[in-house]
Amino acid sequence: MKLKLTTFYAPVNGVSILKTLPCTFVNLKSLELSMHFSELPPILFMFCLLRKTPNLEKLKILIYDGEEQKTEADEEFLNAQWTDGMCANLQVVKLARTNWLPNELSFMKLILSKARLLHSLAVSHHDECSVSHKDPLNELLKCRRASAQAQVLFQGSAGDY
Q1: Per-residue pLDDT, 109
Q2: Contacts of 99 (CB under 8 A, 6+ apart)
Q3: Least confident of 20-29, 50-59, 103-112, 135-144
Q4: Which of 59, 72, 76, 158 makes the best surface tag, with the fewest CB within 10 Å?
Q5: Helix, strand, coil in percent for the chain, rounding step 5
Q6: Minimal CA–CA distance to 93: which of 135, 56, 137?
């Protein structure tokens, strides 16, 4: 089962709605999100979805409007959002249109450090990204990994995705 979801401006109240859902998406194997990574509500919304998808294997995130980070969601904050069993079956993560902002990089490090079955983290940058990918990519390559077979793949510019 696959779900595509666009969350440009997830309302703060929308996060609490997902936390109170009595069901989980047990059959969901693939999740595609189009979202902002520079504001807190969409990031919290994403974590709520990840908590509700225990059998998720593939996660694809298309980042919109990531030129300026409005709220900081650092590694400590993101780690606090993680729960036991979250992303237990996650094997493939793709992030497209990154601008290598701290929130995006912190999320990538979290996935590498927590997803025990991860095979690949594929990253492509925004066409107009002004930040060099070399330093953040080197930082990811040095990051502690929960999965010995996890690879970090740089795919250049996202283009039309």
Answers
A1: 96
A2: 63, 66, 67, 125, 126, 129, 130, 131
A3: 20-29
A4: 76
A5: 30, 25, 45
A6: 56
| pLDDT for the residue numbered 161 | 46
Q: Is 94 helix (H, G, I), strand (E, B) or coil?
A: strand
42-70 average pLDDT score: 87
Closest CA to 63 of 99, 31, 30, 88: 99
Cut 0.70: pTM above it: yes
- Under a CB-based contact definition with an 8 Å cutoff, are residues 109 and 75 in contact? yes
Q: Is 32 helix (H, G, I), strand (E, B) or coil?
A: strand
Per-residue DSSP letters for 98-160?
Answer: E---HHHHHHHHHHHHH-TT--EEEEEE-TT--S-SHHHHHHHHHS--SSTT-EEEEEEE-TT
CA distances 107 to 21, 79, 122, 146, Å, are: 24, 9, 13, 14
| Helix, coil or strand: residue 24 | coil
